[in-house]
Design a protein that fits this description.
The chain is built from six helices and no strands. It is mainly α. It has a single domain (about 5-130), classed as Flagellar protein FliS (Four Helix Bundle (Hemerythrin (Met), subunit A)). The longest helix has 28 residues, at about 75-100.
Length: about 130
C-alpha cells in the first residue's frame, strides 16, 4: 500500500475503525469513497454553520482520502482508466481546496456528486472481479 493510501486509511479510521484490517481491497476502496463523501458532508455542515476551522479540518481529511484513492491506482494494469481517474481525483482535490478558500458550497456539491458517481460505478463491479483483483 502506498504512503497516500496508508494516510487515507488513517483518515478513514479516525472515524470508523471497524473491521478495516479484514476488508478486501474492493471493500477498502468503497470505504474510502464513503469516508470522502462523509467528510465533504461534514465540511458542508461546518460551512453552513459558519465554522471555517471545522470546515478546513474536514476538507483536509477529504483531500487526504481522495489522495489515497489516487495512490491506490495501478497505472501499469489499468491504462487509460487509471489515468482518467487520476486526473479526476486531482480535479477533486483542487476543487475542494478552492471550495475551502472561497467558502463555496457549490464546489463541495460538485465533488460530492462526482465521488458518488465513481462510487456507484465501483459498486457495479461483479463479485468475481472483486475477488480476482481485476
Amino acid at each position: 500500500m502506498t504512503n497516500l493510501a496508508v494516510k487515507a486509511v488513517s483518515q478513514y479510521q479516525s472515524a470508523d475503525n471497524s473491521s478495516i484490517a479484514y476488508a478486501d481491497p474492493h471493500e477498502l476502496i468503497l470505504r474510502l469513497m464513503n469516508g470522502a463523501i462523509e467528510r465533504i458532508a461534514q465540511a458542508r455542515g461546518a460551512m453552513q454553520r459558519g465554522n471555517p476551522g471545522e470546515r478546513g479540518e474536514y476538507l483536509g481529511k477529504a483531500i487526504s482520502i481522495i489522495g489515497g484513492l489516487e495512490g491506490c491506482l495501478d497505472h501499469s494494469q489499468q491504462g487509460t482508466l487509471s489515468a482518467n481517474l487520476s486526473d479526476l481525483y486531482q480535479y477533486m482535490i483542487v476543487t475542494l481546496t478552492q471550495a475551502n478558500v472561497a467558502d463555496d458550497i457549490v464546489k463541495l456539491n460538485e465533488v460530492s456528486a462526482l465521488m458518488l458517481e465513481i462510487k456507484s460505478a465501483w459498486e457495479q463491479i461483479p463479485a468475481q472481479l472483486q475477488k480476482s483483483g481485476a
